[in-house]
Structures are given as C-alpha cells and as structure tokens.
Structure prediction request, 361 residues.
Amino acid sequence: MKIRTWRAVACAAALLTATLPAAPAVAESNGGTRVMPLGDSITEGTQVPGGYRIGLWQRLGNYRIDFVGSQFNGPSSLGDHDHEGHPGWRIDQIDANIVTWLRNTNPRSVLLHIGTNDVLQNHDVANAPARLSTLVDRITATAPNADVFVATIIPLSNAGQESAARTFNATIPGMVQSKVNAGKRVHLVDMHSALTTADLIDGVHPTAGGYDKMAATWNNALRSVPGSIGDPTGTARQIVGVPSGRCADVPGATTTNGTQLQLWDCHGGTNQNWTYTSSKQMVVYGNKCLDAYGWGTTNGTPAAIWDCTGGANQQWNVNSNGTITSAHSGLCLDASGAGSANGTKLVLWSCNGSANQQWRS
Prediction:
C-alpha cells in the first residue's frame, strides 16, 4: 500500500523484503473449503505479515479451510499462507486479474477488502464505487456459486483521506443490496466500525490487535452464512446425488464389510450420515469407511463399506465441481448406469462430467 512519503514507502518496502518468504512451487491445500482473502496490503498483512488471516485461521480451527490465492506469506502459526493480497493495488488492478485468479482456484467464499489505495492515491475517487460494483459483478459472474463478502474499508488516520473513505463506504451497503436483489450471493461486512485509528500502526495498516479485530469480524460474517466455510470437522452429513436427490445409503443399515452402497430416499438415518475426516475418509456409523472394494481401480468397482484401515482405497477427494474421487485410482463416485431410482448401485467410474457423478451435502 502506498504511504504518503517516500521515506515511508522505502521503510515499507524494506519490511516486506525482510519478512516475506518466496512463494512455494505448489500452493498449500488441505482439500478443505476454499476461501480467497482478496485485496491489497491489508489482506497481505503489511507491518504484521499474515495480517487478519492469522486470527481468522485460528478462529476457524474446527473447520477444514483452504485459503487460496497466488500470493504466499505469514508466520508458521498461520496454517495456510495462500492469499490474494497485493500491496499498493487499487480496485481496477484487482479487477484486471480477478477472472484468472478465480478460475485457477474456484473459491467457495471470497473476502474482499479493497478501495483504500484508490483513496490514498486519490485515483478518481468519485468513480471508485462504480469500479467496486463492476468488480463484484465480475466475481459473481465468474464464480456464481461463491459467497462474496464485501467489506467497508478500515479507517485512515489522515482526516481528509478518512473523509473520502467514509464517502466511499457509504455507497457499499446500497451496492451490496442491489446484488442481493438480483439474486447474487453477496454479503456486506462492516469492517470500518470494527477498528479505530488507535488500531493503526502507521495511519493506514492495522497493528496486530487491529488485524485480530478484522479476523473476528470476518469470522462472524462467514459463520452467519451457512455453507460458506463448509461444516465443522467431524459433522456428519448426507451425500446427495444431484440429479436424483437421493442419498448414498448402506442397504438395510447393515454393518457387514463389503456391502455395496446404493441410492435411496434421504431419511436422515445413521446409514446415510457420513463424516469426512482429516484423513480424507468418509466414515459411517463411526467405524466403517467408504471403500473402493478390493482396492479396485477399474470402472465398475463397487463403492462399499469396510472397517476403516487408513488405506488409500478409503481416501477420497471432495472436489469443487461436485465430484467425489478416489485418492487411490482417481475414479469418480458414480450412480451406476446414470440411474436415479431407489436401489441404484454406487460404483467407481472414469470421471466424465456427467450428472450422475455430481454430489452435494
């Protein structure tokens, strides 16, 4: 983020050079619900590397969250260092890149805090609200299933800049409501009132305590929208076939090893409640795992239950496109023959994008 004097800019640059590690060759991922922290240096965490992401990660400890983005920084206490925070960037610069970033990561939720640099750089501030609206439209068009949390920008110590920030912030609730009225999954986050200028270390960026207040505000916003961060770790849920509306079911509620799963009307019974664990197992009854029967890797391999062993044939990836794939074979969980009726057997099959390989919880 650009500061008002060249000395401050130089100090900030030196700080960043000293504290930011090089980006990893492969982004960190734990297979959890993808959340994109999006914005400028306040997202990146200037002055406090990792910024609000540290406190947010800690508060979401009972959820499997995967921060996503092309950038990477923060301390070891931050379990996932990926983000999309770009120091010094304005709304238009984020907008110019957002489609690529979204397509690369397909986030379930987006945390957007942007506009501070438009104010600091006095960059056509009168039209900043229109640029923000365009950016939000581009996000919702590119990732229509994502929940987009749009924050008002935090306070600024300079009186003139703070006045401009307040004018900009005043337009955001109406803009967000217009998106909601259009059926978009957009949510307002009042970040400005969460901090005061006493929470700023340099008049622009928060102190560690200020960033933690931001973390608490993001946390409350995410938890208020069901599904935006998935379910708490260990929460049992149904696996529902998208075209059929029927559940992955253990026939007759049996516990016999090798029993092949089927589709059946969802009724909430224990034989339809699955817990996705940190080991990527799908557990039913608390002790039986979804199993690629016989370690099969060919089309038609039965999807069955078996005592949980920790084997790769009992590990599954829950993917953003609705598929559930075997970590062992890469095959998709499939309703056999594209069936949708009660009793349709569940098998593994080459992933082909068909509706009978789409699942929701």
